[in-house]
Write a structure and sequence with these properties.
The chain is of the alpha/beta class. The chain has eight helices and 14 strands. It has helices at 10-19, 57-69, 98-107, 137-146, 162-170, 214-225, 244-250, 272-281, and strands spanning 2-5, 27-31, 37-41, 47-51, 74-79, 112-116, 131-134, 153-156, 175-183, 189-193, 202-210, 230-238, 256-259, 267-269. Helix 2 links the parallel strand 4 (47-51) and strand 5 (74-79). Helix 1 crosses helix 8. The structure holds ribose-5-phosphate (R5P). Ribose-5-phosphate (R5P) binds at residues 157, 161, 207-215.
Length: 283
């Protein structure tokens, strides 16, 4: 077995290869003069683990090209982050179900797929090969444990993220709650923990994705106004689009971290060990 990866998932792929006690195949990536992607892979094994987060359209194309370059091997696909997964239904007439389009395209030439905290597990059904999702919630919890916060309150930004937050909180036996929006007037909205008070407490807001950072920035502002001692944020997929990290930091958030499903300067939660375990279990 060898590992092969897209350009933007090189660090995670290298750590995964180490965890699997194998190597990463060297790939030359370049472009044709018209911008089309080109790649050429080195020595391919009979069994290949193709690793690449769909962070953008270039990564999506590289993944499809890698699967074809390895077409004489048995290919297992690891998608640490899957963009387009949030368009998992037709919200309006005329829209595509983008998650289905991407899942179908990435099923070509692979025998199975592993995703990490995919936005909605129903997307797994759109792959035409067996697909499973693994969760880094315990790893997010383990990271929070290293912050040595006194009796932290783990908060989900909404009811939908409560399951994830509950798994994070379980790692340290911490309190867990979710934020609830209450409309005070036509223009005023209050956001506060549903059951527990954040007053004088260290709060960690946890979510699967931080994209624009809007959800967490609003929540952090409200929590500070309600007297939280400090607010931190941890997520699996640090998309941080449009300057989101800097904007969040400016709200006074103490610590903003993500995993390395998308490789960032604040990637402090490694995903390799858990992905390696999932790959070994299915062999
Ligand atoms: C939504 O369902 C997700 O779980 C995240 O809460 C959302 O993607 C965060 O987006 P943003 O950072 O843009 O507020």
């Amino acid at each position: 077995m060898k590992v092969i990866c897209t350009e933007k998932s090189q660090v995670l792929a290298t750590q995964l290869a180490r965890a699997l006690k194998t190597t990463v195949v060297d790939v030359n990536y370049s472009r044709f003069p018209d911008g089309e992607h080109y790649l050429r892979a080195g020595d391919i094994d009979d069994e290949m683990v193709i690793v690449g987060s769909v962070t953008d359209n270039d990564a999506l194309v590289q993944l499809m090209l890698l699967a074809d370059a390895c077409d004489r091997a048995e290919n297992r696909l690891v998608l640490p982050y899957m963009a387009y997964a949030r368009q998992d239904k037709r919200f309006h007439d005329g829209e595509p179900i983008s998650s289905r389009v991407v899942a179908r395209a990435l099923s070509q030439g692979v025998s199975d797929v592993i995703t990490v905290n995919i936005h909605d597990r129903t997307v797994l059904e759109s792959f035409s090969v067996p697909a499973q999702d693994i969760s880094l919630a315990p790893d997010v919890g383990a990271y929070i444990g290293t912050l040595n916060l006194k009796n932290p309150l783990i908060l989900a930004p909404d009811d939908g993220a409560m399951d994830f937050a509950g798994q994070v909180a379980k790692a340290g036996g911490w309190d867990c709650d979710h934020l609830e929006k209450t409309r005070l007037s036509g223009t005023e909205v209050k956001m506060a923990p549903k059951k527990l008070s954040a007053k004088a407490r260290s709060v960690v807001i946890v979510d699967d994705i931080i994209s624009t950072g809007g959800t967490i920035a609003t929540a952090a502002g409200m929590l500070y106004r309600e007297g939280a001692k400090d607010v931190s944020a941890a997520c699996v997929h640090g998309v941080f689009t449009g300057g989101a990290y800097a904007r969040l930091a400016a709200t006074g958030i103490r610590d903003i971290v993500c995993s390395d499903t998308i490789e960032r300067g604040c990637s402090r939660i490694p995903a390799a060990a858990r992905i390696a375990d999932a790959l070994k279990k299915r062999r």
